[in-house]
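User: Please predict structures.

Assistant: First:
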Amino acid sequence: MILGCPPKGTGKSDITVLLSSSENKIASAIVSALQAEKSVVDIYDIESFVVSVTEISLDHAGSSDDTKAGSSKVVVFDGEQDVDLLDLTMSGLSSLIAVDSVPSGLYTKIRIEIDNPRLVLKSDPDTVIEDVHLTANSHLFISKSFELPEGQNSLIVLDFGGIHLIENGNGKYTLTPQLRADITVQSADVTLEGVIESVDMDADTLTLTSGGVTTTVNYAGAAVFLPADTDTPTGTEADLVAGLTVHVEGVLNPDSTVDASAIRIVS
């Protein structure tokens, strides 16, 4: 969905949006300071921390040589996709959120809206804590100028910078993301979970629907884990059938296809 009218003559650029939660040195320094005050929740005390991504949008400023053009809002994801920030932080993988075609040209800001936090601590695994305040009223943004050339496939990686969760007392918490963004044409390590829509055994590919996004997955080099498998995969491509829910780990290419290294059948 595109809100506003792009400048005349503007072509299209294909993008793939990923969400990650890898640590960085600045964020680690902030956490160290908070730990001295004994107010930060240690990541190793967290069983899971799920949030819902509800919207991702970009501020489009027109062509790079058109300084008088006003910005328009380009929505690249509008829905509800659950993401476990703990899984992203501990695995170092990214979660696929959206694939879209947007007007090429200059962009100046990335906005992300999150909602419905659900925190579970290892000390009380049966309790889901929902009283988690999200800074900026759940409306996060990154002021970053970048160019999306016409006809190019780009990856936009939105990084939470790790889980920085502050315990306020009385069972209340605050999430303080150190959000940053990387715009690249390189591949990225990803994880995605979804339902197999179809399988092409001749091409060694399957189509997977995850969070409203349909992705082509190349499974030629993937280890297939059955639900009962732990460390040793015993599955084959014959076990990959339409209708199954699977968890895929692999490499996302700039053209939005995934080369899987492991496929775990969930159900």
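Second:
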Amino acid sequence: MKIVVTGARGKLGTAAVAYARQQGADVLEVDLVPYRIGDGPLGQYISADLSDLGQVYDVLDGADAVIHLAAIVSQRLVPSARTFQANTAITWNIFEAAARLNVPRVVSASSIQVNSTVTPRTPLRYEYLPLDEDHPVSPQDDYGMSKWVGEHLATMFTHHWGLSAVSFRFPWIATEDEFRELPLREEPRPEAALYAYVHIQDAARACYLAATATLPPRSHTVLFAAAPDSYLDMPAREYAQIAFPEAVIRPELTGYSSLVSSARAATIIGFRAERVLRPN
């Protein structure tokens, strides 16, 4: 199986490449970073500008799946218009090329920030917690909006071109070093994206599962992939009542459990986080 990973030199991209290769996949790494001596055999890594549709056609040709992680990864790294335009244009190009080249599966990184931005302009509000994929979304900035548009692009291309897609609303992705510093002890903040997290190895595995799972054609599936617990050192219900008093607290929110539900990912692609702070 040939999998193309965009953003292959980024935080999650590096882990996703390594995990897919461990499973025996033929992986083509794609990133804007130039090829360097020692980067491996020719044909395993290509430096490409994904804002150029022609280059996207080149790197996706012959792929069985694309794990699309290339993006400006947060707000306020560059001017907001550039973040929005770059992320949406690149995602359009990925789906355009995949559809016309008959690549059957696109997995892309959306973000919890379509629901829970870290730079809110108006107070964050939730109808209920834990958050799931059916909750109404309300992006408030360039980054979150670019990810929501990416989800709509996935819906359009899957419904009208026949491929299948998975969009992950990832929470904070913790590296091994970051993971060792948890749980976090601080005064709870509403804008902390619900203190949800996923270990980078679990996020990489989720990408591979989504790229290889049996899914119906013309389907777009939005999934959360989070650890089952919170990285805040405060019981989940207590935090929710302090930060979001208007939200309905559902019975499953107990102990230090996550305020984000990954139940749908468990059902559809068999994902359950393995690297967690508080194992059952």
